[in-house]
Amino acid sequence: SAVISQKPSRDICQRGTSLTIQCQVDSQVTMMFWYRQQPGQSLTLIATANQGSEATYESGFVIDKFPISRPNLTFSTLTVSNMSPEDSSIYLCSARPVGTLNTEAFFGQGTRLTVV
Amino acid sequence: SQQGEEDPQALSIQEGENATMNCSYKTSINNLQWYRQNSGRGLVHLILIRSNEREKHSGRLRVTLDTSKKSSSLLITASRAADTASYFCATDHAGNMLTFGGGTRLMVKP
Lengths: 116, 110
Known about the structure:
The complex is a heterodimer. By secondary structure, chain A is mainly β. Helix content of chain A is 0%, strand content 53%.
């Protein structure tokens, strides 16, 4: 199993500013994922963050808006840039251990972002 | 993008009753997983069922998988107020990312 520490747990930000969310995993993981959960909705994958390479973004998400870093096998950050009220969501990081076939995913506790 | 659909979207039952949630998906899978989320917090893994399995149990949870119909169900027996949460199915297609269904909001009234 893996424990993921995600911070901040919540923040209220002014529009036009940026927020960086950090996730620290207590063991090495091959893949980390960033999800967005809009109010009352399900999780939507933003990008897959692999160590040593550029993140892979899903349709509708771009690097300029959501830059991601993955400097090592236990840490990743997601930045929400130039925020608008539409970015108000819960952001979740997730990880799957090495040898990911038929394994569960582990999640951080989420960052509840409100943009005013 | 969401792969699956869940129904019902919301379910309200009395403590002690059983709760059944259904999940449908569109393409072939390696496995299907169920997660629980309390009040918009992180997701907690409940159970994983592989594509070659038809039924799995874990405590008060029972999961079935019908790959011919591309559907799964989660049954929570003898529900408790503490089971109140949102429940999501997630499909694993290629061993990396999970794709989540729309979720079922379960309310168990004491």
